[in-house]
From TrEMBL:
Domain of life: Bacteria
UniProt keyword list: Signal
Position of the signal peptide: 1-31
Name of the molecule in the record: Uncharacterized protein
Region feature (Disordered): 28-54
Ranges of biased composition (kind: Pro residues): 32-41
């Protein structure tokens, strides 16, 4: 009788473990919707020594001045800055 109780206990424990592993009996997690996209990043006021603006728009995105890397014209796409001009200070990359 003891071996039957042990066997039933083992089978029940294995079944509960398998059900828990598969997610049965637990409250299902509902994913939160993604946050709204950030507003388009605005550029900075270009300094007097900045080269002329290459264009008003690039691929539907406004061309803006960004002072990073010595200052460049470019566009913000998906949170990353795509440069459209070279560094006016070093006249290069």
């Amino acid at each position: 009788m003891t071996s039957i109780k042990t066997a039933l206990t083992s089978v029940a424990a294995a079944g509960i473990f398998a059900a828990a592993t598969l997610g049965f009996g637990a409250a299902s997690a509902i994913a939160e919707p993604p946050p709204p996209p950030p507003p388009p990043m605005q550029g900075e006021v270009p300094p007097d020594w900045a080269p002329p603006k290459p264009n008003e728009f690039f691929d539907g995105h406004p061309v803006v001045w960004y002072s990073g890397w010595g200052g460049r014209w470019g566009v913000w796409i998906n949170g990353q800055f795509l440069t459209l001009s070279s560094n006016p200070v070093t006249n290069g990359g």
